[in-house]
Specification:
Length: 131
């Protein structure tokens, strides 16, 4: 199976590749370094952080890891178990995957608690980039 066929299978048919059996397919990449694993994460597949650690570390030409995509799709990594993944640099300059996860959690809490705008402005002044 080539890159284009694999990508179409994921995006059009929503058929995912098994990270153990189909690892070679997941490692196929295009000229931008975007692997089939990246596309699978974009489509909502959640790679196991213990079993698929190598796949989660894959980085494309833009510096984005599969772990970062998975995080943006709603998967939260375990702070104790997934330390190695969370310590990876993210595509955002000077930030790790853990930093991004913390920002996502904080944004979710703010939305759920419906914190007034003035409180957010005060917190931004004291917390800087955390919010």
């Amino acid at each position: 199976m080539n890159y284009k066929e694999a990508m179409e299978q994921i995006l059009k048919k929503r058929i995912f590749f098994n990270p153990v059996k189909d690892k070679q397919i997941l490692l196929l990449k295009n000229e931008l370094g975007i692997t089939i694993a990246h596309w699978q994460a974009v489509a909502g597949y959640q790679f196991d952080p213990v079993r698929d650690k190598e796949i989660l570390k894959l980085r494309n030409a833009l510096g984005k890891t599969v772990a970062e995509i998975q995080l943006k799709k709603g998967y939260l990594f375990d702070v104790e178990r997934d330390k190695e993944i969370l310590a990876l640099p993210s595509s955002k300059k000077g930030k790790t995957i853990l930093d991004l996860q913390n920002e996502i959690i904080l944004e979710k809490l703010i939305r759920e608690l419906k914190i007034p705008t003035i409180v957010l402005k005060i917190k931004r002044a004291f917390c800087g980039s955390l919010i």
